Queue: 2 jobs
Job 1
Amino acid sequence: MQKDSVLEMRGIYKSFYSVKALQDVDFTLREGEIHALMGENGAGKSTLIKVLTGVYEKDAGEVFLKGAEGAVHIKSPEDAQNAGISTVYQEITLCPNLTVAENMYIGRTKGFVTNWRQMNAGARKMLESLGIPARAEQQLGTCSIAVQQMVAIARAVDMECKVLILDEPTSSLDESEVAKLFRLMLDLKSRGVGIIFVTHFLDQVYEVCDRITVLRDGKLVGEYAIENLPRVELVSKMLGKELNDLSDIKSGDEEAHIGSEVIYEAEGLSSSAARHPFDFSIHKGEVNGFTGLLGSGRSECVRAIFGADKVTGGKVRVNGKDVRISKPRDAMKHRIGYLPEDRKRDGIVGDLSVRDNIILALQVLDGFFHPISRAKAEKAADEYIKLLEIKTASSDTPIKSLSGGNQQKVILARWLLTDPQYLILDEPTRGIDIGTKIEIQKLVLQLAEKGKSVTFISSEIDEMLRTCSRLVVMRDGKTVGELRGADLTQNKIMSTIAGGGK
Amino acid sequence: MMKKVALNRRTGRLSQMTDTNLLLTITIVVFFAMYLAAMLFIGRGFLRVQTFLNILNENAALIILSCGMSLVMITGGIDISVGKLTALVCMSAAVNLDYNGGSILTSILIALGIGLAFGIVQGYLVAYLDIQPFIVTLGGMFFAKGMTTIVNATQFNVQNEAFVALKNTRIYLPVGSVNRLGKFVPAYVEIGVVVAIVTVIVLFILLRWTKLGRSLYAVGGNSQSANMLGINVRRTKFIAHLLCGLLAGIGGYVYFLHVGSGAPSHASGAEMNAIASSIIGGTMLTGGVGNIIGTFFGVLSLSTIKNIVALLGLDDAWWTNITVAAMICIFLVVQSAVLLRKKDRN
């Protein structure tokens, strides 16, 4: 163990069934530093943290802590707390039925008895010093999510800890709360606490961190001092693309069939999930894309367009007319379709047949009191099974027995059947094989040629380059750029994601 | 209407209460309102102190069983074995006293031993093997039912003199009523009532002021969070079931002391009454919310309504069942209405 480090993790392995979540990962945290742990979703950040805090047991590897002889074995969060590791998790892990004060102290007080007066006094002091607008005796469940998150932070920093882990603590906080948190982190840092900071927000990383460790696909990419890793390189390391082999040729003829007519236009649109109001418009026959790192707000934006989350403001025009889209059905009535990101949760109805899944959206549009006749359903299903080459035993097969790619095609068929003028595809190619991916990309281009507007979202930038004629780049929930024509190159996109090539 | 206005004025304070305290308040207020109404409109027996004390005498065992049930329900579990377990405890103690020449002490030890054994086994299966508490205690229920008949298949009254003396012990209170001849008749309670009240007080203190008690609430509120907060969730669940089993042993003996006999049909349906009492007392089936004092008043409310139904001359079993069912429904509706209202305000 190095002299100035408080925590060292060596050769950590962890798999869930056959999925290798962590492979040979090393991590070092030094005294009095703020260390960012970066990576796309699924890179293994949360797994690494849960191994460290004893939520998961590691398959192999060793963990060393300052002041402990040899490797330490942390088997439960209780052990981790006793070893001086305190954690604020991504999801709020407090008990909603207990009071704010109890949540701050439960599980870490000594002795058999709970001293309410002492606990409430301690909690009040802490709440006041952090400016958290909650009473110590208040039931936690009645506080807002942001306040709950601040309470979790208060609990973590109040402990006598050597290592403080903050796993995406800022996602539900507003700017002033984030500023408060940063002040607190710098204060703890000066007292020699090592802080692990996980976040999707690049600005925040460059604001407070000293060092960055990047993970990708469960493997360690490297550890860097912040001054040696410009943003562009950080993004390329997270995405796994080297900057120099990113040349890509654009044919540029996609724009030929874009009409002048604006199909959909939004002004200052915002929803409960997409808090920053954004403007957006799409022309007839245009394919556009939203890009940005996961958590940058791209899905939230399209969900706001479709009314999938609670719309909180903004003006929307479809075909030049002012309309109100507050729920998916409104959007469907204006012939907007949305293929959701989470196929399993928002897309398929697993136990229904392929046919029933295909006619679902049309049925909703018609209303359930006008059932679609069996013959008509049969005809529609057969047509799309043939058209999209869906591999299924019959149209009666339950959709859950199909492969992921074919399920995706069924959902696509569901929307094509409603004959939308504007189709939003959120990660339509995730988790499906390469052949199907290309088919879907081709289909998108065909739709555009027929005069339909499509918004296409994908984590794979090459795919977007192949299909989109315009890209909206997002970072930290805000639109940071719009690229078209000659600007549509990997380099340009990545530098825009990273923030103006800083 | 008046109630609504009063509620409106008070929601400022209501919204500051924790769910547990809010439901407790509702339960206590409803119980007193109901008893007062019975005194005013039915009069007769309800005006005598002894009537109230008889409710306690009759239900001392149920109070203890319900306390155990509440502990388990607060952690988000359930224990449906306690009724049959009571029958097993009665039968075993009776056989020990009359056929095996046991003493009061040995019969008490047997009762506690059986309760503890059930608690340990069921607790282990629930907490460490992650089996659904409903399934585990369903098994426990069948096992206890079968064991009771194996111990002794028929009903019999215990003749052991020391036991009969203990059973007939009455603790007279300085209050009472004057009978028709103008003679003062002091009110009394049985020994079981003392045991029940001590149990309620001990468990109230446990839940309110000990780390274990607070852990029970945390586990019921969100067991995953509780784990992350450094609470040993498995151990906490285990202890809850262990205590519930032990309390079923104690409650079983108190029941035995009240009826003085062993029978396979004893305390049938007691587990359902215990669940009903806990719910009326403000314990939520989803876990994390509940109070022992509430459970105590839950038992009293349940038996008061039964008494009212009986005194109204609707003495058939189905009338009792229907009113109890209606009462549970009303309580659940009131609870969720108040909780929803509170949520809206925030």
Job 2
Amino acid sequence: MELRKYIGRRLVQVVIIFFVILTVLFLLFRLAPGDPVSRMVDPDMTPEDAHRLKVELGLDKPLGIQYLVYLKNFFTGHFGYSFHYGEPVVNIIWSRLPNTVLLFTTSIILSALVGVFLGKIASWHKGKKTDSILTIGALVTHTLFLPWLALIMIWLFSYKFGWFPITGMISEDVWLDPDSGFIAKSLDVMYHMVLPLSTLFLIHFGAYLLIMRSSMLETLKEDYILTARAKGLEEKVIRDHHAAPNAALPVVTSVGLSLAFSINGGALTETVFTWPGIGRELVFSVSQNDYPLAQASFLLIAAVVLVSNVVVDVLYAYLDPRIRY
Amino acid sequence: MPLLEVDNISIGYHTRNGYLKAVEGVSFVLEEGQSLGLVGESGCGKTTIGMALMGLLPPNGSVSTGRILLEGKNILVMSDEEKRRIRWRKMAMIFQAAMNALNPVQRVGNQIAEAILVHNPSLEKEAALSQVEGLFDLVGIPRERLTDYPHQYSGGMKQRAVIAMALACHPKVIIADEPTTALDVIVQDQILEEVRALQREFNIGIIFISHDISIVADMCHEIGVMYAGQLVEFGPWRTVFESPAHPYTKALLSSFPTLTGKKSDLVPIPGETPNLINPPAGCRFCDRCPEAQAFCKTTPSQWVDIGSGHKALCCRS
């Protein structure tokens, strides 16, 4: 009951914050320099034509009216048409979102699992060789510059060795072939995913490793670990059943927030690997002054971040019995 | 054969500043059903002795000399696995800061059942939990609190749960390290009363570690007073309490208020404890001792037998 009340209260907050974001986004895009019409049209176009286009897009109306239209569209689920593609924004987003979610959710879950596992090992061998290798390795990979690593990966594994495709998410010959079934198509996507996934994994697992390691070291100093040892439990049981569940709590927050922000898809990764996701679309739409598309993408990110914050808080209550709302 | 015999043990820690001799040449004997109190100020080595008995010294600490005989077997030469097996089954511990001795994310009942299960692997979990119910009855926690988490307990209940946990495998020896320090005096008194009753019922030998000499005197048959890593006085509680022989014990007693005795000013002990990385050659208390003589500083102090089990480590008595 308490929990339901808490979730209700949090959702009200989410709605209010979302409304603020909605407004700020609207203003930001109108204040930004540049004019979408000038991007869309031929420089030779007559001023009359340009004006007609402006009227068509609703950009001639006063700001207040534009805002009201914007709100109305939002609440009726119409995010408008992309200036650039001329397609409904919703369609564009729905076609890109699964690609982003597939790549980034997989990479975060994978790096969190591996990071937590290795962090646990490192803390257990604190000060020994295993610990040094893991910690230094994590620090090095985590501090690499992502676009650089991505390019190196492409250069080495795609260009030099030719093991993996250089760009994209699918091979046309597989997807256009009417004979290829679901498995063949999935395998094709996985094959394209190897490089971007490994790049993201290499960059991110170190963070989880370091968080888990230091959290474990703190936890191992707790009195209840001494109790567990005094009880005659085996070291493995102490590590996995008494220390790790407590130590993993900070990692949960971190994973939750990363999952939320992964929706924006690391514009850099998607751009370098030409992965057809939201992040790449976002960069593109901003640079093209494609207001409807950019706004919708930003709103999607905001909504996901807000909701995942609530989800992480609620999840915490399940993992840590001390937290009750 | 005594239940537990500590024979001339010295314990040290490797620290950044050098080798710290935390405990030196301590010996005592604990018989079945008896209780022995170790009293002294912070850093005197009493907790270190408790940890060494449990085999739980931190990685930088080790027993350098001496023997710890539990039912005649030297536990210091046992393998880690052998030590793990006798822990809690033969010798359990009631921890200092019991508030944090329970894992916050596990149910209290399960934590106690875990101790039973690890030493009786053939037992079903349900059977272990029903044993825990019995333990809760013993220490006076309602059975329905079995499935609660530690933070749902009051301070006194946590302490009771920790005591129930110590009793879980029917140990012969319990080491109680400041078991009631965090509690208010009323709860403290109730808990000590329960511990005494349980000790009689199960004939357990208890080593009671505390800085509070009045609690130790109240609980124990024999008292060992520790100062700067050494045992400085040992004897039956009444003799030590009523006619202390070592100047440190005298000073310790006059630095505590009494409720029933005549009103007197509390006398703090001036000075501080010596550095245990380079302990002084002579008596370790001589710098703070009101009765010190010139030779105290240079001559190592000797045990002086006062009679009927009462002895003191002092060059002058």
